[in-house]
Specification:
Strand order of the largest sheet: 1-11-2-3-10-9-8
Mean pLDDT: 82
Distance between the termini: 86 Å
Number of helices: 14
Helix content: 40-55%
Largest sheet: 7 strands, mixed
Order of helices and strands: HHEHEHEHEEHEEEEEHEHHHHHHH
Oligomer: single chain
Strand content: 5-15%
Radius of gyration: 43 Å
């Protein structure tokens, strides 16, 4: 026995022993690269959600109420009108407001979403001027024919740019978000003021049946909070106080089932929900572009192994044999033979797989070989071989047919 110590093969060093494994920093960097896209997307959604929360308009039942001193109320404008000798009569029912409105009054209609079809019909018969504040499509159709709501504008301040006396005196007005309108053929003599960036109007005025109808796309210039901004106070006084008296209609909520005006889905959706839908559309488009960019252009890569065609044919044949797929093998042989024969016969290549051309192919092959049409038809379009011997015989017959046609 030898005294030399036996040696065992040393174990390969692992990552902890200072081998070639990735370090903790490399793992962290790889995880960051794989997850940063998701993190950025989540961060963008959070930022947009905060923006929506900040832009979402706050509202209450006292908004545009001439008796409310809250920021959204209009008590300040009502008091200014009273001090200038223009009394303001507040009405909370359309029928009562229609009875008070006369030729020397301006009927200011706010919160039009609360009006029913019956209310609109009553107000249509009044004789005084009308000031419609943020009216819906149904109110426009019933009380301001020829004026259509087009879209929204977010330009905060705008110049009048029109010949409406009240707007010219007021000058620049701060609207904030505002509906915009367009005049159609039914608004003969209509005037549009305070154009938006898409050449639409925030304020329109049309004459109708001896009275003037004014449509204002934003209630902000009339509120207590915004009355001191720019020419808001002047515009409110000039519009609401254009006649000797003002009737201010802020209708109560209609009773359930009273048939309030039908509104479109866009009218019913809050402003914040519309922004959220827009945000989701933008996010989907950005993600689609990002994923498409990650794919990159098509790159041609060299095959790792070059396989000879003979080996491919042999491998496929073994698969057919292993599964006893004589019918599939015979059809593959016949299809290949037909593909090679039709150019030799002067026929189009599409005829090889066209059943309607079978009779023509069989007749042409029979004329150029020693076999009759029955034998040629059985070879090119016959039934499935019953055993391996018949499949071998079919192979030999097809080879002979092709050889004779090539030599003819």
């Amino acid at each position: 026995m030898s005294d030399r110590p036996s040696t065992a093969p040393a174990a390969p060093p692992g990552p902890a022993a200072g081998g070639d494994g990735p370090t903790a920093g490399q793992v962290a960097a790889r995880r960051w690269r794989s997850s940063r896209g998701v993190l950025f997307a989540v961060l963008a959604l959070v930022v947009v959600a905060l923006g929506i929360a900040a832009l979402r308009p706050s509202g209450s039942d006292q908004d545009l109420d001439p008796e409310s001193a809250r920021p959204g109320g209009t008590r300040a404008l009502a008091e200014i009108l009273k001090q200038r000798g223009n009394p303001v009569q507040v009405s909370r029912d359309a029928g009562d407001a229609a009875g008070k409105a006369g030729p020397g009054t301006v009927l200011v209609i706010t919160r039009p979403e609360r009006l029913t079809d019956r209310d609109i019909a009553l107000l249509r018969g009044t004789r005084g001027d009308l000031l419609l504040v943020e009216p819906s499509r149904d109110v426009l159709a019933g009380l301001a024919p020829g004026v259509e709501r087009a879209s929204s504008s977010y330009e905060p301040v705008s110049e009048p740019g029109c010949a409406v006396r009240g707007a010219e005196i007021a000058g620049r007005v701060e609207f904030g978000r505002s509906d915009t309108y367009q005049l159609t053929g039914g608004a003969s003599g209509g005037i549009g003021c305070y154009r938006s960036e898409d050449d639409l109007h925030r304020l329109v005025q049309v004459p109708a049946a001896g009275r003037t109808i004014t449509v204002l796309g934003s209630a902000a210039p009339l509120t207590n909070e915004r009355l001191r901004d720019e020419g808001n106070a002047a515009l409110g006084m000039n519009l609401a106080g254009a006649r000797a008296a003002t009737v201010w209609l802020i209708p109560d909520m209609p009773a359930p089932g009273s048939g309030s005006e039908e509104e479109s889905l866009g009218d019913l959706l809050p402003f914040g929900v519309k922004l959220l839908i827009l945000q989701l559309i933008i996010a989907v488009v950005l993600v689609a572009l990002w994923r498409a960019r990650r794919l990159g252009p098509v790159v041609a890569e060299a095959l790792p192994v070059i396989v000879r065609s003979a080996e491919t044919v042999e491998g496929r044949a073994r698969l057919y044999r292993a599964h006893r797929a004589r019918g599939s093998a015979a059809e593959a042989l016949r299809a290949g033979t037909r593909e090679r024969l039709v150019p030799l016969l002067g026929l189009p290549r599409s005829a090889a797989q066209d059943p309607a051309a079978a009779r023509e192919i069989v007749a042409a092959v029979a004329q150029r070989s020693t076999y009759d049409e029955a034998m040629v038809g059985a070879a090119l379009y016959g039934p499935e071989p019953g055993d391996d011997g018949q499949l071998v015989g079919l192979t030999d017959l097809l080879d002979d047919l092709e050889r004779q046609v090539r030599l003819s």
